Amino acid sequence: MTSKILQDQSVVVLGGTAGIGQAVAQAAAVAGARVTVLGRSGAADGAIAGIAVDANDTASLVRAMSQAAAGGQIDHLVITIGSRKSPPPFASLQRADLEQGFGTKLFAALMAVQAALPHLAARASITLTSGLLSRKPTATGLLRASINAAVEAAARNLAKELAPRRVNVVSPGVVDTAVWGAQGDRQAMLARIGSGLPVGRVGTPDDLAQGYLLAMTNGFMTGALIDIDGGGLL
């Protein structure tokens, strides 16, 4: 029998309509939470409520967080949004690429946390999402590395400023989601990547969801960075 470790708690997942965010929402619901997902489509999923939001529009975030709280409190806020746009090499990087990348993953996440503040429980948890490129240099990873490192730095500062609310970060490695292309097209590529990892495979959204559940339920964890990357940093 599944433990109801989030029984009667409110969980809001920004980016929860697909990929890792969707897996987090489903896992939280199984754990007994009242779950609301925020995304462009606002699609609901069974018992999981859905609210449409433009994460790059602060007013839209404020409305969505108020609606998600529904006159109550938010116990756990999870943010998994990010850009699907592949950044160009540094030599052709434009200011617009920087603004789009940071805007979609870092700025939107910070504005979402700010919009949620009036509705967060006194000891709520906030979990952000970075990625292993923050600490794994690659020839073409400058933009993503910079954004992910900024997310991690922001979380540590928020963990101090917003205490006793807890703020943590989950850092995924390569995960089998639509970010890597259509289902049929990406399997051979992901198999090759997985064969080079210590665990012998890439991650699944369900693998990642367990890390977010840990961040939500461990009341002694804040300012932490949870690596779930199959050994990709080794």
UniProtKB/TrEMBL annotation:
The keyword Transcription regulation does not apply. Keywords: Oxidoreductase. InterPro entries: NAD(P)-bd_dom_sf, SDR_DHRS6-like, SDR_fam. Pfam families: adh_short_C2. GO terms for molecular function: oxidoreductase activity. Its EC number is 1.-.-.-. It comes from the Bacteria. It is an enzyme of class 1 (oxidoreductase). Belongs to the short-chain dehydrogenases/reductases (SDR) family. This is Oxidoreductase YghA.
